[in-house]
Amino acid sequence: MLNQCLNNYLVHSDVLMIQWVAYKKNIINLSELLKDEVIDSCISSKAVQGTCLSNLNKISQSIDRSSATLFVETLHEKTFQDAEFIAETDPAWENLSEVLLCYPGVQAMVYHRIANFLYLQNEWLAARIIAEHSHSLNGIDIHPGATIGSHIAIDHGTWIVIGETAIIGDHVRLYHNVSLGNLSVKKKQEWSKRHPTIEDHVTVYAWAIILGGETIIGHHSTIWWWAVVTSSVEPHSLVTTEFTTKYYDKRDRSEYENKQVSDR
Q1: pTM value?
Q2: Which end of the chain has fewer CB atoms within 10 angstroms, the N or the C?
């Protein structure tokens, strides 16, 4: 009798598992269709089609339709802005279509914006599935809860990590291996601000680590490669690493003119 009950439970569990796996595959397929249509619309300079909104509603029928319509239009606009911002300072591209089709940072941001919209609609599982799918494709790990502005350039992007409560402004450039993480926290702090804030017009170079919910990187600042930042930085700062972290005011070139660093 016990064996029979156990067998029935296992069969029932297998059915449930298959249903959830099918759900995950469906979410991934719909997110890919959404991403492809948005990028196609940017390349052809045409407005997004109704199928884009339809695919979003297929992910969750409980989404407010007016909010979804506005989001789809914004997604198209922000994707194009991201591509243009990347193109401004990257000499490696031949045309904007190449940036939209091939650059992992553009792809990752489209997925993130879809995931973030679903996250804000309390569709947390669908949001996380899309975020992890993007992570597996692009090597860029962005939690769907992260708040990210417009004109975002993720250069190369491999091993970038952006935590759930991170806030990133507009015209921000992130290079590969950047981590926007948290200091040691406990599960009960899940609703607290645990990850840093990056204000507008900031560049963060490769391997830089910025930690802590109270850490704010002021606008127009530059964080050098390998820098570890655990406290706030004033606007127009340059943060370098020479055995210890050093701070400069970028508006006074004389302080670091022999460092041969970029104005960005």
Answers
A1: 0.86
A2: N
Say which residues have a Cβ less than 8 Å from residue 181's Cβ, sequence separation at least 6.
161, 163, 195, 209, 210, 211
> Contact 173/151 with Cβ under 8 angstroms?
no
Q: Give the contacts of 113 (CB within 8 A, at least 6 positions apart).
A: 75, 78, 79, 148
- Ordered by where they begin, the domains of the chain are 1-139 (1.10.3130.10), 146-264 (2.160.10.10)
Tell me, rounded to whole angstroms, the distance of Cα 40 from its chain centroid.
Answer: 20
Reported as a single tens digit per residue, the pLDDT across 111-140 is: 999 999 999 999 999 999 999 999 999 999
Q: In Å, how far are 165, 194, 212, 215, 228 from 186, measured between CA atoms?
A: 15, 10, 13, 18, 22
Q: Could you tell me if 83 and 106 are in contact, meaning their C-beta atoms sit under 8 angstroms apart?
A: yes
Distance, CA of 64 to chain centre = 23
pLDDT in tens, 142-198: 999 999 999 999 999 999 999 999 999 999 999 999 999 998 776 766 778 999 999
C-alpha dist (Å) from residue 68 to 111, 145, 220: 15, 17, 33
Pairing type for strands 172-175 and 203-204 reads: parallel
